[in-house]
Amino acid sequence: MAARAGKVTQRQIAELAGVSQAVVSLVLNGKANDATRIPDRTRERVEQVIAETGYTANAAARRLAGVGNKIVGVFTYEPAFPTGAQDFYTPLLAGIEAEAEQLGCDLLMFTSAPVRDGRRRLLHGNSRLRLADGCLLLGVRMDGDELGALQAEGFPFVAVGRRDVEGVPYVGLDYVAGAATLTGRVVEAGHAHLAYLHLEQAGESIVDRMRGVERGCASAPGIRLDTREVDEHAITADLLTGLRAGGVTAVVAETAAQAARVWEVATGLGWDVPRDLSVVVLADPPRAGSRLPDFTRLRPPRTRLGAESLRLLGRILDPADELPDRERRTLLDCEVVGGRTLAAPAHPAQR
Amino acid sequence: MAARAGKVTQRQIAELAGVSQAVVSLVLNGKANDATRIPDRTRERVEQVIAETGYTANAAARRLAGVGNKIVGVFTYEPAFPTGAQDFYTPLLAGIEAEAEQLGCDLLMFTSAPVRDGRRRLLHGNSRLRLADGCLLLGVRMDGDELGALQAEGFPFVAVGRRDVEGVPYVGLDYVAGAATLTGRVVEAGHAHLAYLHLEQAGESIVDRMRGVERGCASAPGIRLDTREVDEHAITADLLTGLRAGGVTAVVAETAAQAARVWEVATGLGWDVPRDLSVVVLADPPRAGSRLPDFTRLRPPRTRLGAESLRLLGRILDPADELPDRERRTLLDCEVVGGRTLAAPAHPAQR
DNA sequence: CTGAAAGCGCTTACAG
DNA sequence: CTGAAAGCGCTTACAG
């Protein structure tokens, strides 16, 4: 980087205003008041020179001098781009950015994080992490070592999503309650044998959804639940035919992609959804899917999740805020959306 | 910000490794080579301590010491959130983030910029701008004074979108050519009287689209063009009826919102699009609109625009890259998408 | 081959 | 009321 010709510093401001550099700093930081006893006239003179020169403090220097930056880091454990993860992250980021505007802070997105052992690394040799006052951590799975290092160092951070790690502050989604409610609806509709299609059980949110589904099934006696770990590509006519032959009348899908695939395959088999098979899903549909039916589903408030996470971090960073312990970990409710893919089974099983 | 207990510095690394702090810095920056004649054994020892302690350089200090940060600022003149601007910015940001991953740089989003006189300000008292090595500027209209100040200061930046300001590097979209081609298609289809619905003429991209439409009309003799400055709310049955009564058989809309509104109003009037009225648009449809027809339209490559803009900034920042002047300002082609809202007029006007 | 030192621009006690 | 100075953690000539 070449030296910048036009760069203005506090020293220059001080010379122009005929004061010492320290006074410029005090004025700049609103500390030219009774305590420091800087006369109004001096303050005004300095302010005028600042306005004239368009001076802006060097944020790196401020930070180095130990002052908060109003910069919040945003780190994503899963690379946000190649994948369809965009539908996932976009609403989250929208919420984060909106809240950042509210808080008046800037967002440092750690897009540079190198991948090692298949995971992105937050703490690498050249990490710009310490430029931020604190950090938001996103991702289904997080590195326990890194969380520990951050905690040990006292670096303020908030996990977006519930974390099973002692002392980690988070804002999460109440998937247990949400999945239980939605599954309960399926049971209430008269289904006695459900299948749950889920992803690999990695990460708290996936475990929570599973627990919620189980709890929903337990809301009535004698409900059977088949669980299958399948990503959407593994959802075939054979699978669905098998499930139905076994007595399954309703499918609970963890992801929108799975639900979409179930619907496509079922429709391809000539089945009617929901008459022949009810399908509910624990997530919002992908944005593309105009062909897809209006699924009965859970609506996780992702935008709010983003906003609330940043708000929590803001409170943690605010020394004046005495945050009660229980507010360091909160869960947001998921709404159940009616949709059109849940109905009573055509041939109710006898319980 | 409380002092961080666990914070490791180069001095501590130096003590542990039994070398001076300067040597740690040299090792860290890959300058422990023949030129500095630091023995391999010393380097290895330092490297090991670094690995053990999980040391990470303080980016603020590095920056202050004059070293590049691999941080690129992203500033948006229009607030990105309250509005429907999200559809606009999302693909752009997707491209920027993808390229940032490629380049290994982080992105500092200036979400804090205060609004003054209805515009967001990049250069305000507390701007974190100088933390970045360079900056990407987004927005339909930009502040000329700020562009000037940035140039005067030699702060590297790239405008996303064509700019009519001397010396400002940009990557833009070739709206002139794109709009001319699409409008030419309308003319080729037999329309002799078109209406162009556009926004207030502020900003180069809006001017360019207008010029392109005019050029497209000039591709055949005797074509009439009515232009109307209307945002979508001002598109009423009266307006369309008036246009059609005047002989207009095709509408070119600047924005997707306008096109959607034209289609809704026309349909409400019992008209068939495109039989009774052809509608083409110079932008991509909003993501929500599953009800809307498949518009004949221009597809501005926004994701690529984002990526190419950052790539250009990366080249400007790279001292080894001798960027030819003409590559400092480039335009990307817009694709024409066939769609189903352009047809020959039912009653071709006689020319 | 290695260490001592200046300097980046700022904030904040501290001494007049 | 104001200035001189230490210190934040780093990079990079420079002197041994």
From TrEMBL, chains A, B:
The keyword Mitochondrion does not apply. Residues 8-66 form the HTH lacI-type domain. One of its GO terms (molecular function) is DNA binding. CDD domains: HTH_LacI, PBP1_LacI_sugar_binding-like. Signal peptide: none annotated. It comes from the Bacteria. InterPro entries: HTH_LacI (IPR000843), LacI/GalR-like_sensor (IPR046335), Lambda_DNA-bd_dom_sf (IPR010982), Peripla_BP_I (IPR028082). Pfam families: LacI, Peripla_BP_3. Keywords: DNA-binding, Repressor, Transcription, Transcription regulation. Transmembrane segments: none annotated. PROSITE patterns: HTH_LACI_2. This is LacI family DNA-binding transcriptional regulator.
